Amino acid sequence: MQPSKHHSAHSSLYPLLRRVALASLALCCLATGIASVSSAAPSTTPVVLYDGALGNMPDNQGWAYLASGGSATRTPSGGATTLDTSSSKGISAGYFADQGGFFGSTAPVPALDRTIGYTVSFTVQVELEDHAGSDKNNDGKEDRAGFSLIVLSSDTRGIELGFWKDRIWAQEGGTGSTLFTQAESAPFDTQSARRPYALVVQGDTYTLSSNGTPILSGSLRDYTAFSGLPDPYETPNLIFLGDDTKSASAKIDLAYVAVGPIGSTEPSLDHKLYLPLLRR
Questions:
Q1: Domain boundaries, position 232
Q2: How many other β-carbons are positioned within 10 Å of the β-carbon of residue 94?
Q3: Which residues pair with 122 in a beta bridge?
Q4: Does residue 85 form part of some domain?
Q5: For 155-191, how does the pLDDT look when each residue is reduced to its tens digit (9 = 90+)?
Q6: HEC profile for 183-235?
Q7: Distance (Å, rounded) from C-alpha 50 to C-alpha 120?
Q8: 162: which strand partners?
Q9: Fewest C-beta in 10 Å: which of 2, 36, 221, 257?
Q10: Is 265 part of any domain?
């Protein structure tokens, strides 16, 4: 029996429709592949190292905690960890993390490559701070802070910043009597509110800002001449937050810490961070 004209037309169109369908499927797969390649590109989302909103302390999230010279008070509350060494300047206490697991830290610190550049974001409030009598080189400037941030790149070049209630400043590097003395500084209110900060490191320089407003900038330092225990200054890819001196004290609220590429957004005011201890 001869097929109808309609059936013949349908049969002749089938190969064409099949080729169109296969072509569409190929284009779909290609688009999916392009999307997969795009999704595999480096992310601008920072690696969160501490989030106080989880209701616990940095050492519950992989940071190592050290203390000496007495007992510091640590309390997780209100989306932050309160670290208090204000009962005695002789107390040192803080949290640190690094890629190699210095002192047993397991926080996922990425490589801090200063050639590429990176951003350390953190949220903190300095409620109390006392550094009186810490002028180590008799130049009229106090040289210690009850709360400090240390960031060391993959080649151990980095910066240590001291936070007072009304000023943020850099510790000098190098050797001799100038090592760990006050270098560049800027007035800034760290006490009245919990504030987000972004420390951007690239090449040989750093810049500290808060809510997009620059606070302080300068050259990275070499602190490897330090001799003491513990000595984190020869540890690459390291971050420290806390009271690292026997000559000052503080009470701080740390809410958030993260590391990301340059251009990473600063943390919100609901976040905060915290780190270790040194005998200086």
A1: 47-260
A2: 29
A3: 197, 257
A4: yes
A5: 999 999 999 999 999 999 999 999 999 999 999 999 9
A6: EEEEECCCCCCCEEEEEEEECCEEEEEECCEEEEEEECECCCCCCCCCCHHHC
A7: 12
A8: 148, 169
A9: 2
A10: no
Q: Please report whether residue 272 resides in a domain.
A: no
Token pair of 97 as six digits: 């993390």
β-bridge pairing 158-163 and 167-171 = antiparallel
CA distance 268 to 109: 20
Per-residue CA distances from 86 to 51, 61, 131, 170, 219 (Å): 24, 25, 11, 22, 31
* Whether the bond into 230 is cis, omega within 30 of 0: yes
Residue-by-residue DSSP string for 143-173? ---SEEEEEE-TTS-EEEEEE-SSEEEEEP-
- The span from the CA of 225 to the CA of 174, in Å, is 7
**pLDDT per residue over 23-82, tens digit each?**
443 333 334 343 333 334 455 789 999 999 999 999 999 999 999 999 899 999 999 999
Measured distance CA(240)–CA(135) in Å, rounded = 23
Residue 275 lies in a domain: no
In whole angstroms, give the CA distance from residue 172 to residue 178. 7
Most confident of 3-17, 54-68, 218-232: 54-68
Answer yes or no: do 142 and 215 share one domain.
yes
Cα dist from 92 to 226, 272, 276, whole Å: 17, 20, 8
Q: How is residue 22 written in tokens?
A: 């296969």
